[in-house]
Write a structure and sequence with these properties.
globular; two-stranded antiparallel ribbon; 4 strands; about 250 residues; 10 helices; mainly alpha; single chain
Length: about 250
Amino acid sequence: MKILQVPAQDLKRIFYIFSRRIGIFVIFVFILFFDSTYFATHFTNSQVPINIIMGIGFFVMYFRANKRTKELMIYAVIVGFGGEYLFSRGLDMYTYRLENVPLYVPFGHAALYGRIFMFSKAPIVRKHHKAVEEFFAVIITLFATVYLVFFTDVFGFVMTICVFLLLWKRPKDRLFFLSMYILVAILEIGGTAFGAWKWPNFAFEVFEFLPSNNPPSGISLFYFLLDICCFLMYTLHHKIAWKRLKNIRRIQK
């Protein structure tokens, strides 16, 4: 594997950046315990405090981010709200514990998006991006295969295949989305284990030929939609701004 050929010092730096940029979301998995069925049954419903914690975390990350990342994070919140209501409440793809869309979820999507964007753009990570991509691809393949064999997760496996097929034609996006896949998988495992949300036994509770685990492995496929929508909004906004700037310059001449 190419990752074994990366100098030890560079490997440590990559791991440090991964831990600093993305590791906070692994910690957030444990915060989801406060939105668990166990905590709600034995103590109290604490979804509101989690919403506040995620809101604070989002704004801390936002003000520390560069200008481009800030703008993308705002778009991600907007798209996240729309996507959650469409897939969860509209299409019954998954269901939250209180059958609502917790506020911490769209803000969490945006913060997740921003942190992975910063990780994937770090110079040392870009320098060894092929090695990191290969390493992540191996982990993802093993993960999806285990889910398929031991949990009959056909839905997740099919989505994972779709992820690889899409990335085959989009080499520039591989590092971002392979990183996204891994972190989303960690969050999904934690969230469903605590009962904060759940997935049906087959895709959308409609397609019985696509049995699903709770959670399915390849759910990050739908983050392509988030990414595409965010970059379309970013491109459209700056296209309009660029046209305005050209018009101003033309008038000044």
